[in-house]
Amino acid sequence: MGKIALFGAAGAIGRSLSEALRERNQPYRVTGRDRARLEKTFGGDPGAEIVTWDPEDAASVRAAARGVDTLIYLVGVPYNHFELHPPTMQKTLDGAIAEGVRRVLLIGTVYPYGTPITATVAEEHPRNPVTFKGKMRKEQEDLLLAADAAGKIEGVILRLPDFYGPGVEASFLDGAFKAAVNGGTANMIGPIDTPHEFVFVPDVGPVALDLAAKPEARGRWWNLAGAGETTQRQMAEMAFRATGKKPKIRAAGKTMVRVMGLFNPFMRELVEMHYLQTTPVLLDDTALTGLLGNVKKTPYAEGVKQSIQYLQSHPQG
What we know:
Helix content is about 40%, strand content about 15%. By secondary structure, it is of the alpha/beta class. It folds into 2 domains: about 5-165 and about 200-230 and about 285-290, NAD(P)-binding Rossmann-like Domain (Rossmann fold), CATH 3.40.50.720; about 165-195 and about 230-280 and about 300-315, UDP-galactose 4-epimerase, domain 1, CATH 3.90.25. Strands 3-2-1-4-5-6-10 form a 7-stranded parallel beta sheet, sandwiched between helices. Strands 7-9 form a two-stranded parallel sheet. Strands 8-11 form a two-stranded parallel sheet. Strand 4, helix 4 (about 85-100) and strand 5 (about 105-110) form a beta-alpha-beta unit. Helix 3 (about 60-65) crosses helix 4 (about 85-100), helix 6 runs parallel beside helix 8 and helix 6 (about 175-180) packs across helix 13. The longest helix is centred in the middle third of the chain and has 18 residues, at about 130-150. The chain is globular. GO terms for molecular function: aldehyde dehydrogenase (NAD+) activity.
């Protein structure tokens, strides 16, 4: 694989990819809107080339994609503005195609599947999103797949469930982990006893790089499942056991989330996604493991332990 660029690199998955690239002695480019944030995260890595971009500026997009062979797309938008996902993807594709980028790998979500109609969800499961966010994510995917089908660029999608890991704050488990370390009550979004799965963020980078290197991966999406079936309560209890504290857990149901949304814009946006708490999407990644072979999945007990150790060594301000 030639030059790799991580677009939207400053988040948790970007850090996982950068660590995997460092382990492989592979130079790479990180791209984002905020140079200071990129410098803070990647400035100490001599293998990282830092480039800022403005996705609204076609020339800026082209400059960020120039000389790149594989573009891994991690670009986030505000949770209350998912309508930005399709146009941002289109502008990125236009710039990447103009600059001769060979392949784009999109890190995707389970949102496009909608409500599951099977116990586990393989790639053949219909994409029938039941929420606005799911529809925007599906539209984003369709733009990439259409560009691939037209022969303009190779497109691949890696679909992830909810994630967690050391330093990962954008996780349903973050509050529980912090309560286990700092004391207090873990505030969680319920119900917390329904089956669930989580992917350990450090495991994602190597899988994404391996998938991007497979020519036969193009033109479709691939699921990466978590380390098995669990529940939010079980994960929280593991965290409290790791610190020797008695579990204190408070779960907010949909009605309470709706009430909290009157005062908290982020909670307001979670209401439409609440179906994932009651009818969770449990991924079947047989196709991915068949393509890549052995895929490392850190057991939940070990992943929780590492997450707790990170919080203990990085006291909260």
